[in-house]
């Protein structure tokens, strides 16, 4: 079933890449930004390569209002204020948090999150939303190349089985991706930490490495 998916903070590389892949899968995609014209500009740029795609841009508030699935991809320093500002609009919605609490000081360094992880923080801020963690470890450069398979597992955390199943289906509509249930919401800190490790590895090797879990009897 096609969804209307809003990318909050979707004008950055990760948001653009996910927007492109979701649009390629046939979903209606709205790129959200603090500035509506910025969201519209990025959407138009992406849509130029996908003329049949339903891909538009708007303010974060307008994007969320129209969506049934919301993917949050803002930098961590904007995470709490953005979600607090959108709390009412996000009530009753499926919120997928793809934010990594990282800062850069001679390489990537983890940011301490009192809630344990950005995803758990989102769940605390949004008690009336269903929060799932996913899409942290997909390389933006790979997502932005529509002819390239991502060759990655998407590690999904959450406490709602139906919501995780929905996100799993979205993940597996990205060419080369496989959804892996990584456990309850409290395991989000490990997924986010692994992503920081990957950022460091990719920087040292100038690579786009990703996560693959071996030994699972799960279809790829």
Summarize the structure.
The protein has helices spanning 13-24, 36-47, 60-66, 79-85, 87-90, 118-125, 140-143, 161-172, 188-205; strands at residues 4-8, 28-33, 55-59, 69-72, 94-97, 102-104, 108-110, 130-133, 152-158, 177-181.
Query: Quick one: CATH class?
Result: Alpha Beta
Order of strands, widest sheet: 3-2-1-4-5-8-9-10
Share of residues in helices: 25-40%
User: What percentage of amino acids are in beta strands?
Assistant: 15-25%
Domain count: the total is 1
CATH superfamily: NAD(P)-binding Rossmann-like Domain
Task: Walk me through what this model shows.
The protein has 220 residues and is an alpha/beta fold. It has one domain (4-205): Rossmann fold (3-Layer(aba) Sandwich), CATH 3.40.50. Helix content is 38%, strand content 21%. It has helices spanning 13-24, 36-47, 60-66, 79-85, 87-90, 118-125, 140-143, 161-172, 188-205; strands at 4-8, 28-33, 55-59, 69-72, 94-97, 102-104, 108-110, 130-133, 152-158, 177-181. The strands form 2 sheets. The chain has an 8-stranded mixed sheet. Strands 6-7 form a two-stranded antiparallel sheet. Helix 4 (79-85) packs parallel to helix 6. The longest helix is centred in the C-terminal third of the chain and has 18 residues, at 188-205. It starts with a strand and ends in a 15-residue tail after the last helix. The model has no long low-confidence stretch (mean pLDDT 96).
């Amino acid at each position: 079933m096609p969804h209307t998916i809003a990318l909050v903070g979707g004008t950055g590389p990760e948001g653009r890449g996910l927007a492109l892949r979701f649009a390629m899968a046939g979903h209606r995609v709205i790129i959200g930004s603090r500035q509506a014209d910025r969201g519209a500009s990025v959407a138009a740029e992406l849509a130029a390569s996908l003329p049949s795609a339903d891909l538009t841009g708007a303010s974060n508030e307008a994007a969320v209002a129209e969506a049934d699935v919301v993917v949050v991809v803002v930098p961590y320093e904007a995470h709490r204020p953005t979600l607090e500002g959108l709390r009412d609009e996000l009530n009753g919605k499926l919120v997928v948090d793809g934010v990594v609490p990282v800062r850069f000081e001679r390489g990537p360094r983890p940011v301490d999150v009192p809630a344990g992880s950005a995803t758990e923080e989102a769940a605390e801020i949004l008690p009336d939303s269903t929060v799932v963690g996913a899409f942290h470890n997909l390389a933006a450069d790979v997502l932005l190349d529509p002819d390239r398979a991502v060759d990655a597992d998407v590690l999904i955390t959450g406490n709602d089985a139906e919501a995780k199943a929905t996100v799993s289906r979205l993940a597996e509509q990205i060419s080369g991706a496989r959804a892996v249930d990584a456990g309850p919401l409290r395991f989000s800190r490990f997924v986010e930490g692994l992503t920081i490790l990957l950022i460091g590895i990719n920087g040292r090797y100038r690579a786009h490495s990703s996560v693959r879990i071996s030994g699972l009897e799960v279809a790829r």
